[in-house]
Amino acid sequence: MKVLIAGGAGFIGSTIASRCLDEGIEVVVLDDLSTGRREFVEGRTWYHGRIDDGALIDRIFADHPDIVATIGCAAKIVVPESVAEPLYYYSENVVAGLALIGHLLRNGCERFLFSSSAAIYAPGLGITEQAPIAPMSPYARTKAHFEQALEDITAGTPLRAVSLRYFNPIGADRKGHSGLQVRRPTHALGVMIDKYHAGEPYPITGTDWETRDGTGIRDYVHVEDLADAHVAAVRRFDTITSHSPDGTAYRVINLGSGTGTTIRELIKAFENVTGKPLPTEPAGRRPGDNAGSYPDITLAGELLSWKPALTAEQGIADSLAWYARRDLVLTEATAE
Q: Per-residue confidence at 334, pLDDT binned at 50, 70, 90?
């Protein structure tokens, strides 16, 4: 089996590529390195370019006519940037993504696995795949619009598609090949690591939410667990799409922890890993904040025989290990 990974030089895409190779699946990577890293494609079959470059994609399929599926990981993902530059996000995540689908269909590649986002849901705890779609940022809306397009395209063309929805990947490739390449991550664990190394208190934004300990709840899943789910979806793709309950060739599956992690629980796990107390300070609720979300992952168990194997503590430990060696791996100009 051979797959094309669009965005295969990024944090998640490169980890999926590593897992595919471990499982005997050949990999062809397409990435323009706008956010991905050259180091993450070293030794792999890689084409440097954009996903909407039809001539390049035609060449990829001429060189590799045995590609049986495409995994779509190429996207811009920074929420504040999407607010500041919404046109850019729609151009990159929707317009370029739809161009890719057209190029794939022209080349007879009719299996598309989309690395999507659970951020398209309305906030909630234990969100199922049938929950209301209510994205709260331009980034999330681009994911939702692209998914809606996939559903329409699968209804009118030979394309079959599966969307995997998840929130926050943590950890790193445990063989040390890749990890989160940005120097200033904005998610809770990334901020926690930065504050820990700076010797500064970690701000807890709200302690009176309706959660099990009053702090906001988020969903974290190890990037290697996510990679395992993508591999399982590729291997079971035909079964998944041919047994859709509504008879469509489009399927949605949630991935995640299944329980979520509160900020206090994340802090406790962090302290267990480091063996040191993490100073904190109350910061009050931020405008636009909510209690948080995590998805129900029952369907992933049924269709993929998947559930996360790695704990939040393992994800924290691997994130810290990657932080310590990141600039040794990223030998070119370090990502901002």
A: very low
* Closest CA relative to residue 28, chosen from 55, 66, 85: 66
- List the beta bridge partners of residue 294: 125
Angle, CA of 192, 197 and 203, to the nearest 5°? 35
- The Cα–Cα gap between 13 and 70 comes to 12
% of the chain residues with pLDDT over 90: 85
- Exposure string over 299-314, b if 16+ CB within 10 A, otherwise e: bbeebbebbbebebeb
Residue with tokens 């709840």: 217
End-to-end CA distance of the chain: 36
- Whether residue 280 contacts residue 323, with contact meaning beta carbons closer than 8 Å, is answered with no
Residue 188 has pLDDT above 90, yes or no: no
Environment class of 85 (CB within 10 Å of its CB; exposed 0-12, middle 13-18, buried 19+): middle
- Kindly give, in sequence order, each residue whose CB lies less than 8 Å from that of residue 145, ignoring residues fewer than 6 positions away: 90, 94
Residues designated as active site: 139
Say yes or no to pLDDT of 335 above 50. no
Residue 76 in tokens: 């811009």
Cβ proximity of 218 and 297 under 8 Å: no
Task: Please count the CA atoms within 13 angstroms of the CA of 73 that sit on its side-chain side.
Answer: 30
pLDDT at 336: 39
Amino acid identity of residue 1, one-letter, is M
Contact indicator for 41, 31 with CB cutoff of 8 Å:
yes
